[in-house]
Amino acid sequence: MKVIVSEIPDDGLEIELNDRIQAKDLNIVSPVRAALRFDKQDADVIVTGSVEGTVMLQCSRCLADFAAVIAGRTDMVFHPLSTIRETEPGQLKGDELDTAFYQDDCIDTDEILAEQLLLNLPMKPLCSADCKGICPQCGADLSVAGCTCKRTETDPRLAVLQQLLPKKE
Ligand SMILES: [Zn+2]
Ligand SMILES: [Zn+2]
Q: How is the chain split into domains, by residue range?
């Protein structure tokens, strides 16, 4: 939805969202839920709250696609775009917050939601905490099925199991 900046009351605006949004670089597969608060500070708008949505990620170990719930806190300040030219770099307030710009008296909440999901993506996504990854030799997904490659470091317990398996000719 669009928030009209001049219509934000002096004591702030609180909204709850449950929106399907599209974002580039991000495959969002659920409606994104958010509780956002907008507070005006002169021409700036401070946005705080929480955002949660489900996105498709690729596991950094086994390369499988999986759905991950991404949740995070929002702490952003929107400056009016027209002030960029008038303000020296470094004079912008709120360095500790994520900085963004609005124009035409309007802030698009879709952009806030997409931005916050992006910011909260894990550095090394894992489809599950005990994902075994793929075999470095044959590429088999070791969480789904084993493979017959000889690994240099064989767990002694596995070696016993391997002897029990029927031998391939
Ligand atoms: Zn995985
Ligand atoms: Zn293998």
A: 2-119, 132-169
For residue 149 the two structure tokens come to 């490659």
Strand partners, 26: 23
Average model confidence (pLDDT) for the chain?
Answer: 86
159 has a pLDDT exceeding 80: no
| Residues, beta carbon < 5 Å, ion ligand 1 | 59, 61-62, 127, 131
Give me the pLDDT at residue 146, please.
Answer: 82
CB neighbours of 100 closer than 8 A, spacing ≥ 6? 76, 77, 78, 79, 111, 112, 115
| Protein residues near ligand 2, an ion, with CB under 5 A | 135, 137-138, 140, 147, 149
pLDDT per residue as tens digits for the range 68-125: 999 999 999 999 987 655 555 555 554 567 889 999 999 999 999 999 999 999 999 9
- 99 CA distance to ligand 2 middle (Å): 47
Q: Cβ(78)–Cβ(47) under 8 Å?
A: yes
Q: Using CA atoms, how far apart are residues 67 and 106, in angstroms rounded to an integer?
A: 32
Q: Considering only CA atoms, which of 141, 147, 127 is closest in space to residue 66?
A: 127
